[in-house]
Write a structure and sequence with these properties.
about 425 residues, alpha+beta, 6-stranded antiparallel β-sheet, 8 helices
């Protein structure tokens, strides 16, 4: 299953091993890989604690209600979006045939994606509802409903089929989320790939959106969005395909696939994958060291902490168009519905959209359980690196991109709104 992007993919491995190499700061280091199905992780044996699993337990006890016995696909989808607090305005449309239901996804039948901070839903007209719920400690949990049939409550399974794709090199062999950018044929198959095996807000916008619809005032002059191609004479004849042009747009909940939810979605994918990859590695290192980190383990954790701190502070954020972008008003409103703010109104969810996505470049995803459930020793190192980047002077060169006024504003927001900061935080 894949619900968080055009090409969400995961693959399976098994115990910690040191193999492969990575260039870090000009030095070669062994790359730590984790077998997430085995101790100390035992992913398959865990009782999921994600939002969807919690909801279904309440449904079984009669403590919550959703429209699960209905002949209407739309009513079925809307009821789950509402119950999971996933805004309809987050809708993204993707038409590359790169998920579990690839046989029915193409430029004439786009797949809709919806998301909040910890839950992702995918739905194709005439297909099944797919859900990824983020377990606070172990990351993505994958669920697939049976196809809807009138008068029958559809079964839902915790799917392992998704491991065929969603735990591979793109997510460093632990459960993760994937987005790709591809040029597709009229049948939805991939003809060219523009980006793969990487997620996050650092990816240039001109490399994104292949196989996706893109609407709204994005001001992108060169984009792979809204395009498919026919192979012809050894090359690809590119064709423009707009949302609803080749199908009834009313099959979907909205006619939009707006630039702003695209940007937010990509940021979240990069955050979640980095957090869970780091969590799995540090948990394994602590287990192997019987609760302590070896010298090599300390060095590995330091590398992970530096990468996380840079990502959280948007150190490598891709440039927006010179005119900026304009987000869909409905999504702007829904995105702010759970903002955490200071008395003066400042919040990490405040948007800029002129030169950067956010006014205060520090990720609002720090408020999620995904972040809070990380091993404390890792969080403390990330906080230390963040504090270095947020002090007024003498910031390390690799994390000194923020103006002093913005650093001070972020420090104030975090100090007064974020639980679990170290006592030394200023």
């Amino acid at each position: 299953m894949a619900v968080a992007s055009s090409n969400h993919t995961l693959c399976c491995l098994g115990r910690l091993a040191l193999f492969g190499f990575a260039m870090i700061g000009g030095a070669v280091r062994a790359e730590v890989k984790v077998l997430f199905k085995e101790p100390p992780h035992s992913y398959l044996d865990r009782e999921p604690r994600d939002r969807f699993a919690t909801l279904m337990k309440k449904v079984e006890k009669g403590e919550a209600k959703v429209e699960i016995d209905t002949s209407s696909d739309r009513a079925f989808l809307i009821s789950f979006l509402k119950a999971l607090d996933v805004p309809i305005s987050s809708q993204l449309l993707v038409f590359s045939a790169t998920s579990l239901q690839s046989e029915i996804i193409n430029p004439r039948n786009a797949r809709a994606l919806y998301f909040n901070e910890d839950t992702y839903l995918g739905w194709v007209p005439g297909g099944r509802l797919e859900i990824i719920g983020m377990d606070p400690e172990y990351g993505p949990m994958f669920y697939v409903f049976d196809r809807l049939r009138p008068g029958r409550v559809p079964n839902v399974e915790k799917s392992q089929k998704c491991f065929n794709c969603h735990a591979g090199s793109a997510t460093k062999h632990v459960p993760g989320l994937i987005a790709e950018s591809v040029l597709v044929s009229p049948a939805g198959s991939s003809l060219e790939t523009f980006r793969r095996d990487v997620q996050g807000h650092q990816i240039p916008l001109e490399d994104r959106f292949g196989g996706w619809h893109l609407t709204g005032e994005h001001h992108l002059r060169n984009t792979h969005a809204n395009l498919c191609a026919r192979p012809q004479g050894g090359s690809n004849q590119v064709i423009k395909v707009m949302p609803g042009e080749n199908w009834d747009i009313n099959l979907h909940l909205l006619p939009t696939s707006d630039i702003l939810p695209h940007l937010i979605h990509e940021h979240q994918l990069g955050f979640e994958n980095r957090v869970f990859q780091a969590g799995y590695v540090v948990r394994q290192l602590l287990n192997d060291g019987k609760g302590r980190l070896t010298k090599e383990g300390e060095a590995e954790m330091e590398t992970l902490a530096k990468d996380l701190a840079r990502y959280i502070l948007f150190a490598d954020e891709a440039k927006l168009p010179p005119e900026g972008v304009v987000g869909d008003a409905g999504f702007v409103r829904d995105f702010a519905r759970n903002r955490v703010a200071l008395p003066n109104g400042a919040s990490l969810k405040d948007l800029d959209l002129r030169t950067h996505i956010f006014k205060y470049r520090c990720s609002y995803m720090l408020y999620t359980e995904s972040w809070q459930a990380l091993p404390q020793v890792l969080k403390d190192r990330v906080y230390y690196r963040m504090a270095e980047g947020l002090r007024d002077t003498d910031t390390p060169a690799d994390i000194s991109h923020l103006p002093v006024a913005e650093r001070r504003a972020i420090r104030a927001i975090l100090k007064d709104t974020l639980e679990g900061l170290p006592s030394w935080w200023r």
